[in-house]
Amino acid sequence: MSETRSASRARTRTPRSIILYNVLVGLCAVAVLLQGLWAGLFMEHDGQRDQAAGWIDVHARCGEIALALAVLATVVALARLRARRDLLTGSIVLVVLLAVEAYMGGLIVDQGRDVLTVLHVPLALAIMALVVWLSLRAKQRALES
């Protein structure tokens, strides 16, 4: 009887690598979500960059944190979840999109290319959708195993 219980628990237990991956992607999702908050705080200054400089810096640092978390999740996917092509590919795409987003944000702030905001904001929403999808996909497939 106890062998049946332990075999049942082993089948339903989520692997540690999936848990670690989900934690990293979840923290990345929180950072991406906070990006919207910080952007809203400095966008309310109607282009007055001097008044919004503090929130712009917070927005930039949080973007760097999101990118670092995405890189760590990709390393976990590459090292321990290589068979999960969906997670590995999605993680690589997430890193690329976050890098493009950060570069674009730098151009907006440093060179005053405000016209890029039209691309920057929708890309942020796509990134948010991707981190949610990655988290749900990892959890879903872990439960199926």
Q: What would your notes on this structure say?
A:
There is one protein chain. Helix 2 (16-43) packs antiparallel against helix 3 and helix 3 (49-80) packs antiparallel against helix 4. The protein is 86% helix and 0% strand. The two termini are 22 Å apart. It contains five helices and no strands. The protein is elongated. The relative contact order is 0.15. With 145 residues, it is an all-alpha fold. It has helices at 2-12, 16-43, 49-80, 85-110, 117-144. It has one domain (15-144).
Query: What would the average pLDDT be, to the nearest integer?
Result: 87
Tally of discrete structural domains: 1
How much is the radius of gyration in Å?
A: 19 Å
Oligomerization category of the chains in this entry: single chain
Helix-strand category: mainly alpha
Order of helices and strands: HHHHH
Spatial separation of the terminal alpha carbons: 22 Å
Q: Low-confidence segments, ≥5 residues, pLDDT <50? A: none
What is the makeup of the main sheet? Answer: none
Q: Care to count the β-strands?
A: 0
Helix content: over 70%
Shape: elongated
Count of separate DSSP helical elements: 5
Q: What portion of residues belong to β-strands?
A: under 5%
